[in-house]
Request: fold
Amino acid sequence: MGKVVKKMKKAKKDRAAEEAADQQVALKSIGGRKAAERREMVTPMLRKALTKQGYQIVGSHSGVKLCRWTKSMMRGRGGCYKHTMYGIQSHQCMEATPSLACANKCVFCWRHHTNPVGTEWRWKMDGPEMIVEEGMLSHYKMIKQFRGVPGVKPERFSEAHNIQHCALSLVGEPIMYPEINELCRLLHKKMISTFLVTNAQFPDAIRNLVPVTQLYVSIDASTKESLKKIDRPLFRDFWPRFLDSLQALSDKGQRTVYRLTLVSGWNTEEMQAYASLVARGNPDFIEVKGVTYCGDSKASTLTMKNVPWHEEVVGFVQQLADLLPDYEIACEHEHSNCLLVAHKKFKIDNRWHTWIDYPKFHQLMSEYEASGGKSTFSALDYVAPTPAWAVFGCVQQGFDPQETRYHRKRGKKDIGGC
Reply:
């Protein structure tokens, strides 16, 4: 016990010294110029730890990692939930982040808190052009490692060298990056769709964000007390920031999503409170996913007991949908223990349209940029029909019948995916 306390005190002392050093850098100036440069976000020790976990570090604060669903779809073994619910091609998706830092220390973080934390940008900053170009090169470098690997389909391997989607959800808080708007614009110019996830602690950044293909906020709890317990936010005013972020989301014209991660024994109650949060942000969709167990960690007390069965997730979603008259359960991806609740406006002529018309989105974005933001568009302007196999209640349970189901061996950790 004494050793643990000693380590905690040392870590606290090191962080205090680090923050003090940053303040000195900010205060010192000669002739309007800083006497010293800001430090890099990724220290040599952190770079080594993240590289060991499979990350490709880009510049001084960004990263990419090959999602397990990218590997799965190259083998013809099925895509991720975004393939089922939104029609992406998982083997053509790059999982990335322009900010490895985060303002939360969530108990279920699958990165075991090796990434840095902070409430504002206080590090050196790389340009968005470099992040996009180097990120794509790093992604392709990882893809090339699958050349000749048994089971990889040649046509899928070839297609994987043409990125079509970017999940800005790898780790950290992407919206913290000061040039996030320009980074998204660069991706759109390359005809790459953007799925951006934020932890709902930066409402102004949400308001100022350019249109993205789909904007997520993580809703990990429904009350102030439970959010503090499960997300462990750094901001003292985390709850007003959280509520303000949901309000900001409701003013966005493009596709918006609440992302709920269910942790048994932590956040599976308080149904009415969840319903109230939905009324505040009016999201187009609500994704509900069972937490992924990532193994033992000193940073978390979670065990396999906290991972809900798929039937439990279905039960939770059914109870939630009963409290939301404007929403229905639309899709299911049993393979990743995930369901999608959609606003009824996406049920057109009695058929769900949760999929995305990606060429149409890029056309609308091009018109938006050309008009200086005057040519706006809405979520319904780039919808596409959802195939029958992806709809909730179908026998496939969200598994694409063109793929071949593969069951992973028991006991093997699953720490990939977005």
